[in-house]
Specification:
Elements: E1 2-6, E2 13-18, H1 25-29, E3 36-42, H2 46-55, E4 61-67, H3 76-88, E5 96-101, H4 103-115, E6 121-126, H5 129-135, E7 140-145, E8 148-155, E9 161-164, H6 173-190, H7 192-206, H8 210-230, H9 245-255, H10 262-279, H11 285-297, H12 310-317, E10 329-330, E11 333-335, E12 338-339, E13 343-344, H13 347-356
Parallel strand pairs: 2-9, 3-4, 3-5, 5-6
Antiparallel strand pairs: 1-2, 7-8, 10-13, 11-12
The structure holds nicotinamide-adenine-dinucleotide and glycine.
Length: 360
Amino acid sequence: MKTLHVELGARSYPIYIGAGLLDKPELLTQHIKSKQVAIVTNETIAPLYLDKLVSNLAHFSVETVILPDGEQFKTLEYVGKVFDKLLANKFSRNSTLIALGGGVIGDMGGFAAACYQRGIAFIQIPTTLLAQVDSSVGGKTGVNHPLGKNMIGAFYQPQVVIADADVLDTLDDRQLSAGLAEVIKYGLIRDLEFFEWLEHNIEALLARDKRALAFAIERSCANKAEVVEQDEMETGLRATLNLGHTFGHAIETGMGYGEYLHGEAIAIGTCQAADLSKRKGWLDDDDVERIIRVFKKARLPVTPPADLDVERFIDLMAVDKKNVDGQIRLILLAQIGEATLPVNVPRELLELTLKSYGRA
Ligand code: NAD
Ligand code: GLY
């Protein structure tokens, strides 16, 4: 097992990464300071891992909340179901909430924990590659709104993140690829050496080579922790983790939540951001081709949906947390391995990318 740390003063916590971690109850129980524990999960993950988790908590008073599975349920309404359960069972302010699932459950569970009685202890047990490399670390929690992705939320750090690589065995290939989109992101924004490693090891990751996966998870979490430690509340640097996300979130919202997986939308959005970076003069054609090639190798889509025209795209991109005074601001690439901070982009240039990149 490897232990990384997110150093945030009083809000610091460990990330445990390794195989068989769900079979080591003490890893979890040492971080629980209450008798009452709620587990939030969904109907796909519950039959796979809930019993094991509950059996690890024999000495606690455990309630479970099993939500429907899907990005379309990442809403205030369904977070309300968590509050219903906590209140019906008289959960106190010192209780603990465990999110067992992918990014959807992690974001919702964390948001419920942040809000319930103004904040209860929260633990992340991420079960998708995407959640293990990104969403479980760093404390962004929240839900979608019909008009914008992740628009309601809170920064709320967990007590611990337990990433058991074995649970990825039951993840389907499409979801594994979606997770790789965020892995590739770290290489592009701040870790050229990792990007080069990925160029040579995507096949091993898709084949679920355990050593390759362990390395990718550790390196991704290390990158994420370093960024979050420097800018927990996203006043600057942390926004670089949003490379491709303004385009990607527009695709997710515009096409209907769940139509494109988050990682798929981010893969397309990152290629669009690369195209725009080229138009700014920062990348050349070879760089853009190199980026597209890695996403394609990871079996991710790289062209935007034909149904979203330029006007609609821009309208959707205008609802983004990086925007200031209504001005769209994007993370672009100064070069492969180095992201820019949010930049204002002239509308004509953005339109050129939206009109030309990936359009037949
Ligand atoms: P997800 O949570 O929807 O999980 C993907 C699918 O895999 C679901 O059907 C789920 O039930 C299933 N699943 C989960 N674990 C499984 C397992 N071990 N075996 C079999 N099936 C399993 O999607 P995701 O890609 O994990 O997360 C995407 C979400 O994360 C988006 O809502 C996105 O906005 C959010 N996100 C948040 C952050 C953050 O910093 N908070 C970062 C990136 C993404
Ligand atoms: N996934 C983006 C962030 O955590 O900031």
